[in-house]
Amino acid sequence: MTAETGIGARVRRKEDVRFITGRGRYTDGINRPGQLHAVFARSPDVHARIRSLDTSGAEASPGIVTDAIGVRTLDMPATPLKVWTALQAGNAAAKGS
Amino acid sequence: MTVKVTTTVNGKPVSGDVEPNTLLVEFVRENLGLTGTHVGCDTSQCGACTVHFDGKPVKSCTILAVQAEGHQVVTIEGIGQPGNLHPMQAAFQENHGLQCGFCTPGMIMAGIGIAERNKGAALSEETIRAELEGNICRCTGYHNIVKSIAAGARDM
After folding, report:
1. Hey, of A17, A19, A35, which one would you mutate to test binding to chain B, going by the most B CBs within 10 A of its CB?
2. I need a labelling partner for A85 at 20 to 30 A (CA). Which of B46, B53, B85, B132 fits?
3. ∠ at Cα B20 (B19, B21), nearest 5°?
4. Rg of chain B on CA atoms, in Å
5. Which residues pair with residue B61 across a beta bridge?
6. Which segment of A75-79, B54-58, B140-144, B147-151 scores lowest on mean pLDDT?
């Protein structure tokens, strides 16, 4: 081990202190004023076609802000099978999409 | 309906209004803003939410906030700070016992429990591995975590 060249020597990581003291920042720990939380509705069926989306119940709930991502995906063409996108549009290729 | 919880966290008296089904981890993270305690699995398997409850490590997602009424809770923020690390925290740094750091608070809190349960006895690698059963790391493996806990226990 040589501390002079660094070859074979231990290197102390610079980022460790925040992680070992509970000060690491992860997305779920961030809370900004006015922050919104997204909720994803997942398909209970395999290879299903989404015919319509009814968000009236959600919109009637207190504190809900609907930017209606789901409604917008309906306007998109159905996702071809074998092509995977983060959000499935038109059809749900897999259970849980 | 909410109920009032009064407890002690990291030595300080705290209270908050919570739904009766609020988990201790939710109370610690959301009411108190102590986000060092992590929710990894939400199913009591991973141990990322481990805190000390009356001095013993518990998974804070298996306990209701109301059960902490009148008890002592210590989180990762309460055992040591930058510049004044707990020996177990220092051992994780020295032995490269973390990579992404997400499971680390739980590993450290569980590691302190392992060290305390085996105080006075020789702490074997086998014992550490067996008693670390409830904590999961998904980065790389347990070799350096086990090494860190052995070193931390020696220094405690």
Report:
1. A19
2. B46
3. 90
4. 15
5. none
6. A75-79
Is the ipTM of this structure higher than 0.90? yes
**Nearest residue, CB atoms, B102 vs list A10, A23, A26:** A26
Residue span of the structural domain in which B107 resides: 87-155
B60 plus B106 within the same structural domain: no
Lowest mean pLDDT among A41-55, A64-78, B105-119: A64-78
The whole model's pTM is what?
0.82
Q: How many domains does chain B have?
A: 2
CATH code: domain of residue B125: 1.10.150.120
Where a domain ends, among B79, B100, B128? B79
Q: Which residue of B has its CA nearest to A30?
A: B35
Non-local (6+) Cβ contacts of B108 within 8 A are A20, B76, B79, B86, B88, B89, B92, B152
What is the token pair recorded at B65?
């906030």
Closest by Cβ to B36, choosing from A10, A23, A31: A23
User: Do B61 and B7 share a domain, yes or no?
Assistant: yes
φ and ψ of B143, to 5 deg: -55, -55
Residues B24 and B57 in one domain: yes
Q: Which residues contact B134 (CB under 8 A, 6 or more apart)?
A: B45, B47, B50, B59, B110
Sort strands B3-9 and B72-74 into parallel, antiparallel or unpaired.
parallel
What is the end-to-end Cα distance of chain B in Å, rounded?
Answer: 44
